[in-house]
Design goal:
This protein is of the alpha+beta class. The chain folds into two domains: 133 residues, OB fold (Dihydrolipoamide Acetyltransferase, E2P); 55 residues, 3-Layer(aba) Sandwich (DNA Methylphosphotriester Repair Domain). It has six helices and 15 strands. A seven-stranded mixed beta sheet has the order 7-8-3-2-1-6-9. The protein has a four-stranded mixed beta sheet with strand order 13-11-12-14.
């Protein structure tokens, strides 16, 4: 007798079971895709509105987080009765013109927090421009290297922009480099990338191996060093 070649017949219970497991497979696949999308969103750009500009390097984001712009420092504004520094108000206005009320992009993987609990990171405008770079190009901020900075190429770009702004007399550079402090000697710390006035007590604690001598402010800034906060040569403007 020849074998039975009739089509395979399933019981009535087989089809619902197959449908059930097929649905489970579909849901599992969808969950995996959703998880990957959420992971990508968390690891990628965070688009957030700037609620308020506090000074030339710090803003408040929608939701209350404070963001310190990576790679730069700006003259301080006066607060709590303390005098402001030269160009502090102008630097704040320059940053406000760039980002106030606008949506910026932040790379979540690149963000850190500083000792004050603020976020520290690189912000980009809607057209892709780096906010830190734009501030340096205007002479409204200066390069402020930190050990947490991981992109050496970016640091080089910021320094090139600073040297260019110094040469073109942008923003605060003409007054700063024309001040009485401009032609004094300064002592740099090769490790921290900060420089100190020769009379600064903190500067005298820098180890010999880490010392770098500068003959002027221009030389120190062009080398990518930033003024130490404890004895900064930056001019003070009372009442601002």
């Amino acid at each position: 007798m020849s074998p039975d070649r009739s089509p395979i017949r399933f019981s009535k219970a087989t089809l619902p079971v197959a449908f059930f497991f097929g649905a489970l497979r579909t849901l599992a696949a969808a969950a995996v895709v959703l998880g990957l999308l959420v992971q990508a969103a968390l690891a990628g750009d965070w688009r957030v509105r700037v609620e308020k500009v506090l000074d030339g390097d710090t803003v408040v984001l929608d939701g209350g987080e404070r963001l310190r712009l990576r790679g730069i420092d700006a003259p301080e504004v006066g607060h709590s009765g303390d005098p402001g520094q030269y160009y502090g108000r102008e630097a704040t206005e320059a940053l406000a013109a760039l980002v106030a009320g606008k949506t910026i992009s932040l790379d979540r993987d690149e963000l850190d927090r500083d000792r004050y609990g603020r976020l520290v990171g690189l912000a980009r405008l809607g057209d892709g421009r780096l906010v830190s770079l734009a501030m340096i190009e205007q002479g409204a901020a200066f390069v402020y290297p930190h050990h947490s900075d991981r992109d050496a190429e970016l640091g080089h770009r910021l320094l090139l922009a600073q040297v260019s702004a110094m040469g073109r007399g942008k923003g605060f550079w003409p007054a700063l480099l024309g001040s009485a402090a401009a032609e004094r000697g300064y002592l740099g710390n090769r490790n921290s990338r900060r420089f100190h006035a020769l009379s600064c007590a903190q500067g005298r604690t820098v180890g010999t191996a880490n010392q770098v001598r500068f003959s002027s402010l221009s030389e120190a800034f062009a080398a990518g060093f930033a003024p130490a906060r404890e004895c900064t040569p930056w001019p003070v403007e009372p009442g601002r």
